[in-house]
Design goal:
heterodimer; A: about 425 residues; mainly alpha; Helix Hairpins; 2 domains; two-stranded antiparallel ribbon; 16 helices; about 60% helix; B: about 290 residues; Cytochrome Bc1 Complex, Chain D, domain 2; two-stranded antiparallel sheet; about 5% strand; globular
Chain lengths: ~425, ~290
């Protein structure tokens, strides 16, 4: 795939037999043992592995929960309570699944911001990046569907708010939303189909992840300098180097995960979701889970219903265009002195929008939400194209080996890289 | 750049209290209480849970059900720890509907430990018809279904309150709220107009609650069991009743709390050791890369 030579030799007779019929070991060896990985990756590169771990955890805990959960309006809440009280370690499995969703998004956001900072979306990784955006979208859908399942007040009203977006579509909106609901409002019929889709989508995510890793292995990983891999001394074999680093990072991440599961399992949730769903009583503040808050803020910043929905969806979709919006010839923000400020401003914007998403859409909060929404889009539509053109990058090392081992180290001082710019 | 950041911080600091004022009400401030079960090393006080159950049974159970708690939970580990025989006898004093029998009829029988607490009303409509349209909610998960609002400025919330709450494992917002409501009944100030049938409560959103003060009888309403010294196990005051019943409600909402926290410690220590070992292994492996 990424052109490194195949060094796999089957040892046992079973391995030889399998290699002739279905060369899985050869594939695994080539892609995950022998695979050349840049030697200068920092810990931000461990989040891909962490995300795969999160996906596996969600799948396992989710499948077990589905054995006890009942997707009916009258029984869903009680079935979750039964899991919490009467199923052996049900409380633990349920907490892992609920906290796991938050951990999944935390790792995902760190992973995305890593990509934005180091220019991992730039050629030749555009398809890799777009696959990532698709995974993110399906994750958002999966999480939304999953949150409705306990059938608490937030589940029900969150479902009502989000599904109502579809009624904003001109002409067909009302028909679409009735079709989605399976009725004229959110009911147990809606819950049942949401459960079916919630079980389905993680496997769609798994398929997209396979494609995502495939695309990654075609181009190879990016690295903090943004320079291409040129010589063998720029890389180390994935096993044991990258694998040990990934596994250590997973253990530390699991510590954070476990802290929430055991000591603050409902901290990231909302108390209102322990109140059974009641179509006749609207909660005073309807808020989604924290990972949706920035988009919720953008939605409410626009006074028009359709406008808000369009802008909210655009906020996610615009990520996919980053490879073409960013005109910089330098990948990594490490060597982009002007863009760096804007990157941090973008991060602050996302955090601020998250905070504002949790507040009522009143008074000064609306004004700030509009300011930060403006910057969010300006970052993609103005900053990325313009700064890339006017900026002079700072001086870069000539190769990865040189960046890691210092000048004169390795064979890095040869050929000029295609991506090392010569700006005067 | 720094100037812009500083400007934004100052503007934000001004914005928060202004926003609260614009939202149109004084914010209700509910204090946090010390609980034996709070924090990362918290456990339930069995004696308190037993007193809490007594308060629930004598004061609250007339109107509020707790249909997700089974009688057997009262003697199982992690809870009030009543003796099993006592619980069997207690359960037998309640009647539950069972059936159909071989004649096809539903019949009443004494409850067994495997039965859940019977609710005072058959359904919500009956409850509402007796209580002028108000519905006394089931209390099984009440301590998790409520919380208290954080009214600090945004920078304090982000950089102090939230990290502190995560590190301390603060999950007692519901308990703090329930205790506050039970102890905040007062006479309405003369400037405040009460709606018909409502009661003034300083901790309840909107200050008007349909529930009358359950402890209107004052101190001594519930008689606690006397200890070896002839004195009640705890002061028979409204404050104590409120604390005890709140602790009981917390157990009802989170019966696996003790197991969760003790397992949490074992897991954290295991993961810490594992992370250390993996770190050393990673360093050893990477040494050969230089």
């Amino acid at each position: 795939m990424s052109g490194h030579e195949d060094t796999y030799t089957p040892r046992s007779s079973f391995e030889k037999w399998m290699d002739q019929r279905l060369p899985v070991m050869r594939l695994m060896h080539g892609q995950f043992v022998d695979f050349p990985t840049p030697r200068n990756l920092n810990y931000l590169w461990t989040f891909g592995g962490i995300l795969t771990f999160c996906l596996a955890v969600q799948l396992l805990t989710g499948i077990v929960l589905a054995m006890q959960y009942v997707p009916s309006a009258t029984e869903a809440f009680d079935s979750v309570e039964r899991i919490r009280r009467d199923v052996n370690y049900g409380w633990l499995i349920r907490s892992i699944h609920a906290v796991g969703a938050s951990m999944f998004f935390l790792a995902c956001y760190i992973h995305i911001f890593r990509g934005l900072y180091y220019g991992s979306y730039k050629a030749p990784r555009e398809v890799l990046w777009i696959l990532g955006v698709l995974i993110y979208l399906v994750m958002m859908a999966t999480a939304f569907l999953g949150y409705t399942l306990p059938w608490g007040q937030m589940s029900f009203w969150g479902a009502t708010v989000i599904t109502n977006f579809f009624s904003a579509i001109p002409v067909v909106g009302e028909t679409v939303v009735v079709w989605l609901w399976g009725g004229y409002s959110v009911t147990g019929v809606t819950l049942n189909r949401f459960f079916s889709l919630h079980y389905l989508l993680p496997f769609v995510i798994t398929g997209l992840v396979v494609l995502h890793i495939w695309a990654l292995h075609v181009s190879g990983q990016n690295n903090p300098t943004g320079l291409d891999v040129k010589t063998k001394s720029d890389t180390v074999p994935m096993s044991p180097f990258a694998v040990m680093k990934d596994v250590f990072a997973m253990a530390v991440f699991t510590m954070l995960f476990a802290w929430f599961v055991f000591f603050a399992p409902d901290y990231l949730g909302h108390a209102d979701n322990y109140v059974e769903a009641n179509p006749l009583v609207t909660p005073p503040h309807i808020v989604p889970e924290w990972y949706f808050l920035p988009f919720y803020a953008i939605l409410r910043a626009v006074p028009d219903k359709l406008g808000g929905v369009v802008l909210m969806i655009s906020a996610v979709a615009i990520l996919a265009f980053a490879p073409w919006l960013d005109t910089s010839r330098v990948r990594s923000t490490k060597y982009r002195p002007i863009y760096r400020w804007f990157f941090w401003l973008f991060l602050i914007t996302c955090l601020a929008l998250g905070y504002l998403g949790a507040k009522p859409a009143e008074g000064v909060y609306v004004m700030w939400a509009r300011i930060f929404t403006f910057y969010y889009f300006a970052h993609f539509l103005l900053v990325m194209p313009i700064v890339g053109i006017i900026e002079t990058p700072s001086s870069m090392p000539r190769s990865i080996s040189e960046a890691v081992l210092g000048k004169g180290g390795g064979m890095g001082s040869t050929a000029a890289a295609a991506t090392a710019p010569e700006k005067r | 750049m720094l100037k812009i950041v500083r400007m934004l911080l100052v503007a934000g600091a001004v914005a928060a209290p202004v926003a609260a004022w614009a939202a149109g009400g004084e914010e209700i401030h509910i204090a946090r209480q010390p609980w034996s079960f709070s924090g990362i090393t918290g456990t339930f006080d069995k004696a308190q849970l037993q007193r809490g159950y007594q308060v629930y049974k004598e004061v609250c159970a007339t109107c509020h059900g707790m249909r997700r708690i089974a009688f057997r939970n009262l003697y199982e580990a992690g809870g009030p720890g009543f003796p099993e025989e006592g619980v069997k006898a207690l359960a037998a004093t309640f009647k539950v509907m069972d059936g159909p029998n071989d004649d096809g009829k539903m019949f009443e029988r004494p409850a067994k430990p495997s039965d859940r607490f019977p609710s005072p009303y058959q359904n919500e409509k009956e409850a509402r018809s007796i209580h002028n349209g108000a519905y006394p909610p089931d209390l099984s998960v009440m301590a998790k279904a409520r919380g208290i609002e954080n009214t600090s400025p945004w920078y304090q919330q982000l950089f102090w309150d939230m990290p502190r709450d995560i590190v301390m494992g603060y999950q007692e917002g519901g308990a703090d709220y329930v205790y506050a409501v039970l102890t905040s009944y007062a006479d309405a100030p003369s400037s405040f107009t009460m709606a018909d049938g409502m009661n003034y409560n300083k901790a309840f959103p909107g200050y008007q609650i349909a529930m009358a003060n359950p402890f209107a009888g004052g101190d001594g309403l519930v008689k606690y069991t006397k200890g070896a010294d002839g004195r009640p196990g705890a002061p028979e005051t409204v404050d104590q009743y409120s604390r005890d019943v709140t602790a009981f409600l917390m157990w009802a909402a989170d019966p696996t709390l003790e197991q969760r926290k003790s397992m949490g410690w074992a897991v954290m220590i295991y993961l810490l050791v594992t992370s250390l070992l993996l770190f050393i292994a990673k360093k050893r492996v990477w040494a050969s890369a230089h």
